[in-house]
Amino acid sequence: MAYGSADEMVFGTAKQPVSYGFGIKVGAGRVIPELNYAPRPGKEKDPESLRKEYVDYIAKDALNRAVTVGFPDVQLETEWVSQMGNPKMATPVVEGQKAICEKFHEEYGINCAVRQTIPDQREAEEGYRPGMGGKHAYPEALFQCAEIACENGADVLSCETLGGKELADYAVTNGDITAFLFGVGYLGSIDMEYVWSQFVDIAKKNKVVAGGDTNCSGANTSMFMAGGYLDNDVQRTFSAVTRAISAARTLVAWECGASGPDKDCGYEGPIVKSIAGKPTAQEGKNCQCAHCDLQGNLIAQCCDLWSNESVEYHPEFGGSSVQCWLGSIGYEVSLMNTAIQCGQEKTLRDLYMISDRARGPEGYILAYDNAYQIGKAIAENGDNIYLRAKAAGLTAAKLIKGGYEGKEIQLTNKQLEVLDVIIKDLEALPDDEDKFFEYCDKKYSELVPLYDKKNYGL
Amino acid sequence: MIDYKGVDFSKILKRYDVEAQNETTPEAVAKKMLPADPVLKNVAECVLYMKFKDVGPATTEALKTHKPLDIINKGLVVGMECVAKLYAEHIYYLPEIMMAAKTMEIGIAIAEKQIPGGRETKATVVMHAAEGDPHDIGKNIAAVMLRSSGYTVIDMGKDVAVTDVVAKVEEVKPLMVTGTALMTTTMTAFPRAAEILVKDGVNIPFMAAGGAVNREFAESFELGIYSEKAPQTPPIADKVLAGYDWKRVRDEWDNIVGGA
After folding, report:
1. The whole model's pTM is what?
2. Each residue of A21-73: pLDDT tens digit?
3. I want to staple B55 with a disulfide (CB 3.0 to 4.6 A). Which of A9, A389, B46, B149 is the partner?
């Protein structure tokens, strides 16, 4: 564990801060706003339209607003649209965003940088690894995108990799926690190691920071489907446990040499930060433009970058959407940094955390004291990707059960019923990794048509 | 950590999910809906309680005394209707829908074999996720719900090229076509496909759905109609089957999806 106790963890400071771009220092004593955006539909029609949207409108608007309201730092994040798999579409955007950051840095002294998050378009049915013969050659394109991003001006390289998604989709829709453990905790970790060891090499070669990943395609799918109090697709106890399992997978990018920050939508950030001490990007209350969750305040507790998740570029009364949402995250960050400067950061952290601690099971297990316990369960199982993911899930489930029995958090009867099944299912699994694989391989070969162990080199 | 032991969380948030939880049991809801005939009731209960290992033997047994179509329509489908009701009342959730649907399909497959020429479904719907978009979980859920409601679904999968969608629609002439997208730059495939269909004289609803899609976008192109969430798809399909064209679906959309 990077931290001696949960109480050491606080927003704005990481054990291993990272510097990049034009004066950006993440985890070095202050939180940095990270703005994410999407182009308007139709702007993907040709390279110049896309460049203009991303650079002349989005980046310029955002940097202008940052200067207008006096934000000392801003990080832009471009999550590549699928069309940017074509180098002719991607290169002008990456180059242009770098150039405009440099211009603003030189002109105003604002600290800024761009995270380039490349798309993982791999499909299980076509193969996850290069040379498997898929008609789109998506695995080959994935690594080509990393090269393009790093060669043309990325400050941070990130990706939302999809390894294990075919099992995660089945797990979430069928309420099968073992399938999630197998898909995300086990196979996902294998895929992460395969992908991120290469990303780290590509980034290093180009003197770019390899940031990190997120289990967006698994744990976030689960969280969004679990939704809020009016939703009835997935139980929130199920979603909470998937989040804990996903931490064991997200950690792998950092174990491969990525230095952080990880990705904003990885709500598992507090868990992985407790283990590795690397900076984490988070999103919550100020990402309502993209989605609603039940831990909007709490998840700010240990962040080093604070994000809006994503907003489509369009006009609002207060300026363009990117300007409005930069204002939203930027002022929140300003409050956090004020707390740090006044020596009140732990007080604010605790207020954030307490306000959502009882709102739902996922927030409950992500509260920094509980996140730390899950982190410890992962760390105690070292490099065994199966046992540590299982331990993360089981620890989270038991924390929720304990919180329920101790009357700290309420659960519906259904949430409790599902929680009990999860504990029973996870406890029934073997301790031996080979036996677990053998069992799951047979079971899910029959149940999940897209599952193919060859995608994981097995 | 700040001591929060004395905090009254009810002053901070309200757990509407706990307060409003439905204590009714599946048995209580199903009691009013299940068939009186004990053989058909047994088949329906297999679906209702997701007994996918029992549904095969139960269907085979029922075939000795009942017509296959009756077993399907008055047994298996009724069981699924109970499940839909339980889902609407927040007693059952998505996993139960998925498992019950799977159970129903096992039974239907057995009964169908005894129907010369196979069973006729309500209509065919072609579904896909947009070109460049690898996210299709919503489409998969909607497909299960459509099949459970008696439709044949041709699921083209994810990342489907516009030309392939158009070719499939023109080949099978479905009741409607659906497309899902999670990204603003992939959903633009829908108006492109619709434009070709219109040009080729195809006049069926093109349902646009998914995280990036909103009603305004879905209704911005000819043929386009909207679905906000998977359970809305069957009632919309039912209206199209009843003769609504895409313009009328748009006009009456709020009423159509009101209960979904």
Report:
1. 0.94
2. 999 999 999 999 999 999 999 999 999 999 999 999 999 999 999 999 999 99
3. B46
Helix, strand, or coil (residue A374): helix
**Which residue of B lies nearest to A86 if distances are taken between CA atoms?**
B132
- The token duo for A147 is 């090269």
Hey, are the CB atoms on B4 and A357 less than 8 Å from each other? Answer: yes
The alpha-carbon gap from B226 to the nearest alpha carbon of chain A, in Å, equals: 17
Which of A337, A338, A336, A365 has the alpha carbon at shortest distance from A351?
A336
Where are chain B's structural domains? 21-112, 124-256
Q: Which fold has domain B124-256?
A: Rossmann fold (3.40.50)
Other Cβ atoms within 10 Å of B2 Cβ, number: 12
What's the whole-number mean pLDDT along residues A382-403?
A: 98
- pLDDT given for residue B259 in this prediction: 58
Q: Do A169 and B140 touch (CB under 8 A)?
A: yes
Residue in A43, A174, A347 closest to B99 by CB: A174
Are A118 and A81 in contact, with CB atoms under 8 Å apart?
A: no
Q: What is the pLDDT of residues B147-160, one digit of tens each?
A: 999 999 999 999 99
Residues of B in contact with A122 (CB under 8 A): 134
Question: φ, ψ for residue B245 (rounded to 5)?
Answer: -90, 175
CB-CB neighbors (< 8 A) of A172 in chain B:
137
Phi, psi dihedrals of residue A162, rounded to the nearest 5°:
-105, 5
Instruction: Choose the mutation target among B3, B52, B183, B214 for the interface with A, i.e. most A CBs under 10 Å.
Output: B183
Best residue of A174, A301, A322 to probe chain B, by most B CBs closer than 10 Å: A174
Q: Which residues pair with A319 in a beta bridge?
A: A316
CATH 1.10.1240.10 describes domain B21-112? yes
- Cβ neighbours of residue B204 under 8 Å, at least 6 residues apart? B169, B174, B175, B176, B177, B197, B223, B240, B246
Inter-chain CB proximity B132 and A312 less than 8 Å: no
B24 neighbors B75 (Cβ within 8 angstroms): no
Give the mean model confidence (pLDDT) for residues B157-169. 95
Task: Give the Cα separation of A255 and A276 in Å (integer).
Answer: 9
